[in-house]
Amino acid sequence: MKKEIVYIRAVTLICFLFGVLGIAAALITGSSSMLFDGMYSMVQSVFILLSGFVVRLIGRKDDEYYQFGYGAFEPFYIMLRTVVLLTMNAILSRGAILSLLSGGRRVEATIALAFTAISIVGCLPVYIFLRHQAKVLNSPVLRAESRSWLNDTLISVSVLISFAVMALLDKAGRSDIAMLIDPIITIIFALSLLPPLLKQLINSAKDLLEAAPPKEVQERLDEIVSEYSSRYGFKDYEIYSSKHGRTVSATIHVILREDLSVRTIDGIRKAMLKDIIKAWQWSDTDIVFTVDPSWMKYAVPVAGEEMLG
Question: Is the model's pTM score more than 0.70?
Answer without folding.
Answer: no
